[in-house]
Amino acid sequence: MNALTIGELGQQAKVNIETLRYYERRGLLSAPPRSRSNYRLYGPEAVKVVRFIKRAQGLGFTLKEIEELLSLRAAPEASCDEMRKAATEKIEGIDAKIRLLKAMRDALTTLVDQCPGQAPIQECPILEAFTVEEEA
Description:
Order of helices and strands: HHHHHH
Shape: elongated
Strand content: under 5%
Low-confidence stretches: none
CATH topology of the largest domain: Multidrug-efflux Transporter Regulator, Chain: A, Domain 2
Largest sheet: none
Structural class: mainly alpha
Radius of gyration: 24 Å
Helix content: 55-70%
């Protein structure tokens, strides 16, 4: 077996060793056996798992969601449809965030357009919009 120390795993997977320890504490990465001198000794599959985690994070999945994806990956009875459903749900969440961000951008653009830029700060429409109380 080509065992990897935590440092070697970190290098191959391009992550910090503290990240690996965190993944292990969260249960995303299985606790490996230890050497006689108490070094963690990971198998080559650990590199794939860590890369999987990082790629999924890069696509917006949370660590909790990644935990579920890793469970799917490890379940021989799971189907591709389950993974497709998880990805589709993530897309829907991203679309909702995009809508929210666009609304925020539009609101800020409106405020910027209303601001003359030359008035005293006490008369700034942007500042005023942030301090207006909502009606009950």
